Amino acid sequence: MNGSTERGAPVNTASPARQRPASDSARVTALLERGRTLATPVLRAAVDRLAPPMDTVAAYHFGWIDAEGRPSDADGGKAVRPALALVSAEAAGAAPETGVPGAVAVELVHNFSLLHDDLMDGDEQRRHRDTVWKVHGPAQAILVGDALFALANEILLELGTADAGRATRRLTAATRKLIDGQAQDISYEHRERVTVDECLEMEGNKTGALLACATSIGAVLGGADERTADALEAYGFHLGLSFQAVDDLLGVWGDPESTGKPTWSDLRQRKKSLPVVAALAAGGPAAERLADLMAADVKKTQREFEDFDETEFAARAALIEEAGGREATSGIARVQHNKALEALDGIDMPGTVRDELVALADFVVVRQR
After folding, report:
1. Number of neighbouring beta carbons within 10 Å of residue 301
2. Distance separating alpha carbons of residues 181 and 203, to the nearest angstrom
3. Sign, CA torsion 226/348/109/70
4. How many angstroms separate the CA atoms of 204 and 241, rounded?
5. What domain count does the chain have?
6. Measured on CA atoms in the order 280, 9, 37, 333, is the torsion positive or negative?
7. Which family is this protein grouped under (predicted)?
8. Domain interval for residue 291
């Protein structure tokens, strides 16, 4: 089955013709590292503005210190969004450094959403460490998240240019859509059925909108016209849907050692993610059995549900795969990946920059975390 892997193996949704050569892997590694190197000092300086203890709580969240306040080099995330913001600036003919304020602003909004999402979802682990609400309490998770969102707008508006105003409008619009998507995601957990179209709409808001912003904000800061910015935004939106589809696969079949989350993490949270929704929509005996189990799950308390053993979740994962949910989700990831690349066709940019955007798109659909 194309795109299907055992739990714990890399999730690869790319077509055989689009497998990444070693040179592309090296290119992506360099782009991600450049994003971290240029954005992290500005990000740290922004976090240092926060009043105690929020500065310390935020530093813990970003992996700069441990729970006792000692320096740490914990996993800070993939840094895809900062990398995209810097390449976005290059697509407009500007230096990558032009995109740094946009990269930092997007990263602040992204982490605002993670802090709140972890609390709302009850996630106790992120990136192999206890989440902020678990260590510092729910109140600090909420406050620090709010503070990061405010900082994101400050970082952009302090530039004092017309392009900074354009960038801020795009960021605030993306944030509103992100919040819409989170609200949809939560509401879907309490419904027996969600359509594939509803799921894609939710994921377009929750993930696509901010990645779309990341891939246009550097260009806007670099003076790009609206047509170029909109085309880059379309690339990022479809890339976001592909990214989320892969995340949904990892949420069921990902290796905890790579993802930093428990086995069957999305199933434990009763999420109506793409594999689940696609499986239920497929019909057939496996889909019917899955629907019966999930209907019974709705009637259980969260405590009863959490008391399930591994075999219960493994059985649901097997039914999702048997019904075709895994293959359908891989197919959606490939389609959205192709749409992202098609959006680049209308943009006049250096060939090397186009290659960077293609390599980053390929990275999104072939990853383990």
Report:
1. 8
2. 6
3. negative
4. 6
5. 1
6. negative
7. Belongs to the FPP/GGPP synthase family.
8. 20-367
C-alpha to C-alpha distance for 365 and 159, rounded to whole angstroms: 35
Could you please report the per-residue DSSP string of 173-184?
Answer: HHHHHHHHHHHH
- Residue 131 domain-assigned? yes
Q: Tell me, what CATH number does 105's domain have?
A: 1.10.600.10
Q: How far apart are CA 101 and CA 153, in angstroms?
A: 10
User: What's the burial of 170, exposed, middle or buried (CB within 10 Å: 0-12/13-18/19+)?
Assistant: buried
Rounded-to-integer distance, Cα 334 and Cα 138, Å: 38
* Predicted confidence pLDDT, tens digits, the chain (369 residues): 333 345 554 455 544 335 555 578 899 999 999 999 999 999 999 999 999 999 999 999 999 999 999 999 877 778 999 999 999 999 999 999 999 999 999 999 999 999 999 999 888 988 889 999 999 999 999 999 999 999 999 999 999 999 999 999 999 999 999 999 999 988 887 777 899 999 999 999 999 999 999 999 999 999 999 999 999 999 999 999 999 999 999 999 988 877 767 788 888 888 889 999 999 999 999 999 999 998 888 777 777 777 787 888 899 999 999 999 999 999 999 999 999 999 999 899 999 999 999 999 999 888 766
Handedness of CA 269, 273, 275, 280 (dihedral sign): positive
Q: For residues 109 and 367, is the Cβ–Cβ distance under 8 A?
A: no
Sign for the CA dihedral angle at 196, 199, 205, 208 comes to: negative
Residue 55, in any domain of the structure: yes
**Domain contains 288:** yes
Q: Which phi and psi angles does 208 have, rounded to 5°?
A: -60, -40
**Amino acid sitting at position 194:** V
Task: Determine contact, residues 66/60, Cβ cutoff 8 Å.
Answer: yes
Using alpha carbons only, what angle is made at residue 128 by residues 333 and 253, rounded to the nearest 5 degrees? 35
Q: Record the tokens describing residue 56, joined without a space.
A: 């310390």
Examine residue 14 and state whether it is found in any structural domain, yes or no. no
Pure H helices in the chain: 22-47, 54-62, 80-91, 100-121, 132-136, 138-157, 162-188, 196-203, 209-221, 226-253, 256-259, 265-268, 274-282, 285-298, 302-306, 310-323, 325-343, 351-365
